[in-house]
Amino acid sequence: MLVVSMANFKTSVALAVVALAGISAGAGCAADNCYRALFPCPSPSAVSVASAFCATITASGTTATNYPTRATNACGTTADRYISACQCGPTCSYSTLATATSSSSTTSAPACEPPSTSTTSTPTTSTAPPCESTPVNGNLLYGDFECDVTPWTANVFAPFITVFGYSVTTPGFTKANSFQTKFLGTPNCPTTCTYARLTSPVFPVTPGVKYKYTFATWFDGISRGFVGTKINDRAGRTVNAIDYPVSKWRFHQTPFQANATENEAYVFYEWLNVESRLDSITFAPLSAYCGNTPPLGLLPDGEFECGLGAWTQQKPDPSVTAGVVNITADSLYTGSFPMGDFAWRMVSPGVPNPANQELRVSARIISGAMSVTPGKKYLVYFTSFFSNRTVGSIGVMINNSPIYTRNPNDAAQVTPAAFAPNHIIWTATAGLTSASVKIETLVFGAGTIAIDSVLFVELNDDVV
Ligand SMILES: *[C@@H]1O[C@H](CO)[C@@H](O)[C@H](O)[C@H]1NC(C)=O
Ligand SMILES: *[C@@H]1O[C@H](CO)[C@@H](O)[C@H](O)[C@H]1NC(C)=O
Ligand SMILES: *[C@@H]1O[C@H](CO)[C@@H](O)[C@H](O)[C@H]1NC(C)=O
Question: According to the UniProt entry, where is the signal peptide (predicted)?
């Protein structure tokens, strides 16, 4: 089967939209959006409902009207499109997904618990499959690939089956392993080709709720290809290899809000003209980042969705305003891609008097203390926003030692007035068992500096 894909994507700031098609079916049927809505392969229960419906519509001609509700948006309420889609039949392969789905209804102890110093009890309710890293507060999906690809489903598309492959390899971004796609030969691909897809099990979501979806990528060569990901077949995130340094892990996050009727979700990745590693996939409600057991990493209250929480704020310069605010209704942040509704921000009404500042710092936030292991590597991640290029810069310290500066003119800031990623790899020095992250605004002019999505995540020792 040849899968034609449309690389119909546009990049804007850090988020991009990708349209991918990857359903195949037999000849003489319309494998269109109606077909995809009727037979959502990652949802075996929906597929069996559709199959039962198809049996009635083909048996009794065109009289059946009990159209599956999940398909009516795409197929309408006349029989012709259902008949056409039913003729394709489901082409899903269930062996892995059926296992994944059944494991989500009962809880069993992880079969392959990674070595961990944290004390874990068997969760009473969990959608996380066995053989995955310990799911933390609110995590609905965990792709750490510590044992195998399972419960994800990987497919290499024809005609690339002999020249493209996948495996679970080491090192991972977090923990030992990662998922890796690889060129095994030279594919004869005239245009943009989709080589492979990795599909998650279906997991429950709550209508209307906001989620954060994370993953990490590693490209081992220069390529014009990209990894695209979608959530419930809607716009997800595109990671272009060309935008990232070769042979380095990079962390990504993207927001998702379940619509008013959406109560389950799945995600998939597709590799177009590229090979890469993939690791550390999480999908959790933003509210789960409130408190000191975040779904990912160690840092409490890093999304600011419940205010400062464990953070301490200091404001040496009384002329500035600082704090956690709901920024969604403020036009200053329009198109800035915040995660969730709240961010921490400092507003300077004018050029500050240095006498009121502490070494140019007007305001700062200091995280709760986290336990670290000497010699271990950690990701310090946050997003930063500057209302303009003259307001100032951001300094980051761990336990009062400076580790990083973000300037609004840095290339990685793309446009200052967008929440842009900051990606720092930090190693805990000998003897250090506790770390606290301090983020400072060094202010030189009028304007706003904002911070969101602060994470602190233990990494594999080999990460560079
Ligand atoms: C809500 O999400 C479902 C599942 O992804 C989709 O089928 C439906 O069209 C969406 N509804 C709206 C109003 O966007
Ligand atoms: C944030 O503000 C928006 C707009 O005023 C509002 O709709 C939303 O409910 C607020 N979010 C929270 C969590 O209060
Ligand atoms: C920066 O932004 C502030 C307010 O947001 C404004 O007062 C100031 O004039 C701006 N500076 C420049 C150089 O645009």
Answer: 1-16
